[in-house]
Amino acid sequence: MDNDRKNSNSSIEDLSQLTGGLAHEIRNPLSTLKVNLQLLSEDVRELGDPEDDRIRRSVLRIGRMQDEVNRLRDILDDFIQFVGHHQLNLQCGDLNQQIDQLIDFYEPQAVANQVRVFKQYTSEPLICSIDRDLVKQAMLNLFINAQQAMPQGGDLMVRTVRNGEWARVEITDTGIGMPAEIQKKIFDAYFSSKKGGTGLGLAMTRRIVEEHHGRIEVHSEPGKGTCFVILLPLAMQNAASPDADPAESEAQT
Asked: Looking at 62-71, 167-176, 222-231, which range is the least confident one?
């Protein structure tokens, strides 16, 4: 049984390295294509008559190709990050402080998209052993997901609570919400309810949270917004599953 498990893990790691290497190889010609499309667009604009319908159509078509190249690059970047092996750089720190730094970083994007960000933290520090960059990336994915659910703007509330030995982070939006069948799939890789989405952002968020021995949940109703909940173990506490405290967790919602 142990040998089978080792062989299985080895095969998964080999496949991950193969697909990651292939994705990197695809990025190189895409970069070349992107540069040449930009040069072609500039040449067409400089050499052609801007009033000519054929020139305008050519520029428009080149622009569409540039958009698709950029979309493919985004998909590849998400894929490379998803299949890559995370070597956690764990450091003890106040989770409230890390979230506050992330909100400061995100604020200009929120303002540009008419999203008002509110925050409510625990009065005491929430000391967790985390990879700060990865945890910030996981939460930024949730901020962006909330923003996309509020195309006309709205409110985003970030709240922290201490649940016994666990730090609880609630990220709540006033967006369109989602039905139960979407909630069941929302963390699946390559599943996306949004046009043009890669379907890897929330899958990556779940992976990061679980690598920190935590859990992520979603609570939503159509037309009533969405609340994502992250549970992370506090530092210097006995290891336990967040599943062991579901009643207390739900009581804080």
From this structure: 62-71
